[in-house]
Amino acid sequence: MRDVDTQRARNVLNAALSNIRVDDITIPVHYWGLEEAHFSNISHKHSFFEVCYVIHGRGFYIEKGSKFQLNDGSLFISRPNIIHQIVSESGLTLAFVAFEVPPQENLNSWVARWQNMFDIEDVVIHGDRKPVSNTVWDALIRTASLPTFEQETLHALSTTLLISLVTSFRPMETPTHDHFPSHKNPVLERALHFIRDNLSSPLLLNDVAAYLNVSGRHLSRLFSENTGMSYKAYLQLERIILARQLLIESEHPIKEIAELSGFSSIHYFTRVFTQMSNFTPAAYRKMYHS
């Protein structure tokens, strides 16, 4: 969106659209966001819904130990009180909106469907599925960036956006999580599986490359081109994801979890985990078991 004044659009959206009316219900909006370079953030949670639209860039969305690829056009949702994180080394051009779902006693047909979004499994929709919400996002952002605009147009587009989110995110009987890039490279595919299955091992770049019968340079390039991350960064992220899962789902001592996740010492594990999660391993476990 090179021709869009992102700062003006963000300011206008936040000034004009703090509440959105759908039928006879008002939806409180906490904030609108529009960032041209959104990099990795810490693990965190909200008490409200936040829906993000990747206008451009590559990265990952992490939720409850699962990692989802983000590419141009990806749409993803963070639900209330669920710890999540966005990871991107190259930066994402990102639009997002945070809103409340009205209380149960105020339900109408649309709000009832928003309530169903608490139970969705498919939290990331890839751009190749062309979610209708993305088209509405583009129109809303462009309208908000214009020197002059009709207030009614902004309200109509924002209402349409919230309604379109209901049809974009639907509960699915069978999860279809896609942990890999849409266009899979066979060598990279094998590398990702090998890494995930052997995280307790050192997994040096050249050793994994030799297993795959490619050069270390070639494997390094495959990671940077297909995941937007270096091999080292991707491996460290996978180790932390496994550690989070073990902290939540197992009773293993933290020292053993560090070893199972491939960290050479509990001190190094604690330092890296705290940097990437903003919690010590013990505090992270306590959040889920308190």
UniProtKB/TrEMBL annotation:
The keyword Transcription applies. Residues 189-287 form the HTH araC/xylS-type domain. It comes from the Bacteria. The keyword Transcription applies. InterPro entries: AraC-bd (IPR003313), Homeodomain-like_sf (IPR009057), HTH-like (IPR037923), HTH_AraC (IPR018060), HTH_AraC-typ_CS (IPR018062), RmlC-like_jellyroll (IPR014710). Keywords: DNA-binding, Transcription, Transcription regulation. This is AraC family transcriptional regulator.
